[in-house]
Amino acid sequence: MSADELAFLTVAEAGRLMARRALSPVDLVKALTMRAEALEPQLHAYLRPTFDAALEQARRAEGEILSGGARSPLHGIPYGLKDVVDAAGLPTTGQSRVYADSVAREDAEVTARLRAAGAILLGKLTTHEGAHGGPSFDLAWPPARNPWNTAHFTGGSSSGSGAAVAAGLMPLAIGSDTGGSIRNPAGFCGLVGLKPTSGLVSRRGVMPNSFSLDHVGPLTWTVEDCAIALQALAGHDPRDPASAAVAPSDYRAALTGDIRGLRVGVLRHLYEEEGGAAPATAKALEEAFDVLRGLGARLEEVRIRPSTAYNDVKIVIGESEIHAVHAQALRERPGDFGEDFLARILPAILFRGADYVQAQRLRRMMMEEFGRLYERFDVLITAAPSLAPRLDAYRPIQFWRKTTSLVTPFNIPTGPALAQCIGFHEGLPLSMQVAARPFAEATVLRVAHAYERATDWRSLRPRLDLQAPPPGVPAVPDPEPSSLTTAEEEALRGVVHAAGLGLPDRAFRHLCSAAPYAQAMVERLRVPMLLEQEPAFQLG
Description:
Elements: H1 3-7, H2 11-19, H3 25-43, E1 46-49, H4 51-68, E2 78-82, H5 109-117, E3 120-125, H6 159-166, E4 172-176, H7 183-189, E5 192-195, E6 216-220, H8 223-233, E7 263-266, H9 269-272, H10 279-294, E8 298-301, H11 307-325, H12 327-332, H13 339-345, H14 353-373, E9 379-383, H15 398-401, E10 417-425, E11 428-435, H16 441-453, H17 486-498, H18 505-525
Parallel strand pairs: 2-3, 2-4, 7-8, 7-9
Antiparallel strand pairs: 1-3, 4-6, 5-6, 5-10, 9-11, 10-11
């Protein structure tokens, strides 16, 4: 088997070969580490490779498989962890100087489950700082690059996870998703990425972003691989207060290919009316809908609220919570955070407690609306992030200026959402999302697998030149000019002082640029509510 053939084996393919003793975990790990060493200068997918330890694990797995057979479909399968997930004895830095010396005392629950399944950890993968700010160009670690075109963005914040799987550095990577951070890189890198139902996969041992919105899930090349990974990851964790005491389904068994009669709600307005997708993505979606109809699914167009409503709720909740998570470090070491992280997180000081509660109350209303929608439909489908932009086009203010989103509507309800590839345009992947009611992962995977099996997109892989020179890191973008008056800027300095923050000048300038957008977001949330309408808080 050639080096490329080994690199591009799926989880399922490698597992079947190992079970027949036709493939050694040692040979697979060696091939993947050699490929990573050759491509890492171009891709920056790894933050901390653990190749020597992986080789030892591979030798142990090989002996176990030869003596007693594979104990799970992941036995001997290499994988990587986004560097917000703990692995005992390794640093979990969140790609931040602030947490560079933070060493995990024990495995995260997802790491422990993968270890118990016999999977082999190849290392910790690049992320956006704190699983939030990025791409950052002023940190010691360069941002990950998209294997389909290294001048382009991977999406984030599970950036290294997306780059690693797409480039054939590993068949499985673990990411986290608070506002699209699994589905963004899955879309931009042409992968399958699943945000599971809240509580299905434990978050214990994962650096928090937003306690209300965090999820942990897999990025893989195929839907079958995603189902295999989810089977190992899912299950109740009594040490995670948000973990659901729900027995996982048999996800791989759900991949029957039969979606006859399945009710599909098409959220066309999210990408056609709100500018969420390019014409090439819209065209690919129509072709995907034709495939699903041909397989017997019943499609009907349906509407939800404008995506701005969900995005506002997500941002007010998420930014308030991540600011609370890092509040002490922000007071003590603000200059050690990257500029992009600060540009995103600092406007949270403008949100009041009443704004946070209002956002949580609106979230509950939105969850109830989705619940009624899922009485009519088995799944909802819309565009996913596609056509990755150039990395050097990124500006921090985009986070606050952009009011629409394809992904956050599915972070507000608690159910699963999956992104998968539906084509290519000018060499870059196009993608769609499949979402469903809470704990209906089996249905989501069944639909996605039926589509994948009926198309040939999984036969295409990025072509990387092993001899290409490393790309340079783009310049750090300057803060956007502020629209605030001198008096408004002085008032904002007072708010910063009251929060106990001593900010670098550039960080304050980023805050001034974003403040009007944050204030507009809060104003949009101020809608009339009945006295008895309760907030969602954790899981509703």
